[in-house]
């Protein structure tokens, strides 16, 4: 007896970001019929792709890049999926240039960790002909998202907006062929003759999952509020194994309450120099430069637990600056995040955020620290004074800050903003192989089920390079479509025969 369904296509893709778009595009190129379902409404679409900086990691040497990605993963991902990513990423730039000739891709960076083995095999590009990395004048995420949507508009892909997926359905042979979707006219069961591809993103806005899986709590994100872990739960129900659920693309970010009671994260820039970050007890604890450079290593400094106090002393941490920085421009990066999708408009001089209390203010560092809620405002004042003395005396910074960053915080009034561990997205989710097939707890593929993008992305401990998220999403979206539409039987494809919990060496 065949399971009942309302509609069918060759492939059902669930989630409309870079991964979902790439999956649908590649399937359409292969002549397949595709239904792409998206939980958000078309006029309120805030995918992480659209909210991103539009950066893309590319590969100029597959062997070197594989070695580099392996090192960054810290043993969390086997070699085969990493090599598959490196091979595909080496073709990404020409694919995008053909897809969107006006995207204006420009090299802006290399590997984030240039001293790691194989780092020379990595490049990072951004659309919009940026002048510098994270160019505030260029909204590259919007440009990339628009380019993918324009390309899809030229295909026969059937996009279903306002249609959150609910449950996966196995057929009588155990294949995942159907999915139940809530639509504006009620629930519908969609059948994919060649399977289902989950591209639903992470769990940035699922508080229970963050509390139980991530390495500290609370953690906040500046990505899409629609990323609530839907794909993880659906995949778990049909037997998917999970991997690196404790990992995140991290940095210190701001998070504030809106008037409607919801909260929203912001990608904050602490530059230009004239900054100090302390723990909740008012003490500096790390070199703040990586946070200022918009890199990801400062995040790991925030995860320390103090068992004697029973607290995470750096959750939140506190950023101090003066009037010079307030006048220098918006604290939030306006080319990505909430601003580009209309969720919030940050004021040009930060005055609106000061008035709302998001930015604490005082005539002294002590007053600003007290207004921000530090446990020991006096210690914070001493920490900033010690920092200022180092700047005045030309001494070496005890945390290793470069001399050119040692600018005093000396122009009152003074300000303080809470920063939390978090970032753009989580990375954990259903374990997958180099064919983008979702695996069960014994390392065997779940027939008919595939995944791509931030939903269990092929990454691990350390974020490798600008643009890794989007590149991984596009590359594994393409791989998922190709595997699903292969003439070979899904269950007969070569699998990963190692213990799925064994680390890659």
Summarize the structure.
It contains 15 helices and 22 strands. With 505 residues, the protein is α/β, with parallel strands linked by helices.
Number of domains: 2
CATH class of the largest domain: Alpha Beta
Distance between the termini: 46 Å
Could you give me the name of the CATH homologous superfamily of the largest domain?
Answer: FAD/NAD(P)-binding domain
CATH architecture group name of the largest domain: 3-Layer(bba) Sandwich
Secondary structure tally: strands: 22
CATH topology grouping of the largest domain: FAD/NAD(P)-binding domain
The level of helicity is: 25-40%
Low-confidence stretches: 488-505
Radius of gyration: 23 Å
Q: Tell me the number of helical segments per DSSP (H or I, 4 or more residues long).
A: 15
Find the structural class using helix and strand composition. alpha/beta
Biggest beta sheet summary = 7 strands, mixed
In terms of DSSP E residues, the strand content is 15-25%
Mean pLDDT across residues: 94
Shape: globular
What does this 3D model show about the protein?
By secondary structure, this protein is α/β, with parallel strands linked by helices. Helix 1 (18-29) packs parallel to helix 6 (140-153), helix 1 packs parallel to helix 15 (468-484) and helix 13 (365-372) packs across helix 14 (377-393). The strands form 5 sheets. Strands 12, 14, 15, 16, 17, 18 and 19 form a 7-stranded mixed β-sheet that branches. Strands 7-3-2-11-22-21 form a 6-stranded mixed β-sheet, covered by helices on one side. Strands 1-10-9-8 form a 4-stranded mixed β-sheet, covered by helices on one side. Residues 488-505 have low confidence and may be disordered. The protein folds into 2 domains: 7-50 and 145-247 and 427-492, FAD/NAD(P)-binding domain, CATH 3.50.50; 249-423, Flavocytochrome C3, Chain A, domain 1 (Alpha-Beta Complex), CATH 3.90.700. The chain has 15 helices and 22 strands.
């Amino acid at each position: 007896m065949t399971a009942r369904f309302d509609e069918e296509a060759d492939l059902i893709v669930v989630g409309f970001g870079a991964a979902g778009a790439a999956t649908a595009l590649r399937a359409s190129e292969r002549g397949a019929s595709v239904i792409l379902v998206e939980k958000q409404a078309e006029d309120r679409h805030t995918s992480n792709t659209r909210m991103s900086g539009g950066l893309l990691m590319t590969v100029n040497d597959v062997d070197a890049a594989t070695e580099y990605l392996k090192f960054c993963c810290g043993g969390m991902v086997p070699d085969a999926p990493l090599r598959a990513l490196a091979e595909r990423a080496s073709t990404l730039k020409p694919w995008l240039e053909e897809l969107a000739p006006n995207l204006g891709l420009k090299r802006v960076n290399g590997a984030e960790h240039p001293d790691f083995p194989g780092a020379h095999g990595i490049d990072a590009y951004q659309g919009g002909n940026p002048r510098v990395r994270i160019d505030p004048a260029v909204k590259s995420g919007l440009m990339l998202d628009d380019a993918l949507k324009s390309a899809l508009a030229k295909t026969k892909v059937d996009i279903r907006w306002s249609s959150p997926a609910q449950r996966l359905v196995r057929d009588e042979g155990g294949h995942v062929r159907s999915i139940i979707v809530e639509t504006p006219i009620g629930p519908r069961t969609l059948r994919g003759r060649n399977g289902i591809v989950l591209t639903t993103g992470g769990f940035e806005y699922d508080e229970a999952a963050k509390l139980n899986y991530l390495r500290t709590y609370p953690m906040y994100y500046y990505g899409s509020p629609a990323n609530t872990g839907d794909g993880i739960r659906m995949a778990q129900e049909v037997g998917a194994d999970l991997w690196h659920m404790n990992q995140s693309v991290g940095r210190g970010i701001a998070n504030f309450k809106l008037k409607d009671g919801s909260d929203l994260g912001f990608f904050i820039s602490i530059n230009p120099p004239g900054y100090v970050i302390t723990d909740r007890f008012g003490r500096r604890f790390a070199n703040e430069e990586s946070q200022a450079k918009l890199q990801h290593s400062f995040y790991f400094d925030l995860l320390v637990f103090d068992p004697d106090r029973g607290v995470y002393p750096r959750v939140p941490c506190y950023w101090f600056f003066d009037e010079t920085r307030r006048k220098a421009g918006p604290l939030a990066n306006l080319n990505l995040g909430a601003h580009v999708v209309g969720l919030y408009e940050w004021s040009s001089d930060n005055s609106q955020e000061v008035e709302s209390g998001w930015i604490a203010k005082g005539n002294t560092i002590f007053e600003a620290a007290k207004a921000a809620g530090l446990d020991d405002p006096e210690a914070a004042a001493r920490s900033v004074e010690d920092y200022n003395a180092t700047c005045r005396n030309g001494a070496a910074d005890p945390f290793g800050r470069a001399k050119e960053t040692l600018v005093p915080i000396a122009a009152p009034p003074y300000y303080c903003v809470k920063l939390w561990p978090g970032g753009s997205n989580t990375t954990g989710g259903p374990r997958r192989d180099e064919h983008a097939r979702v695996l069960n707890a014994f390392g065997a593929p779940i027939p008919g089920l595939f995944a791509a993008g931030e939903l269990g992305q092929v990454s691990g401990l350390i974020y490798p390079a600008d643009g890794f998220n989007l590149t991984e999403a596009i590359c594994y979206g393409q791989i998922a479509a190709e595997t699903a539409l292969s003439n070979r039987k899904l269950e007969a494809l070569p699998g990963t025969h190692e213990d799925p919990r064994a680390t890659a060496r």
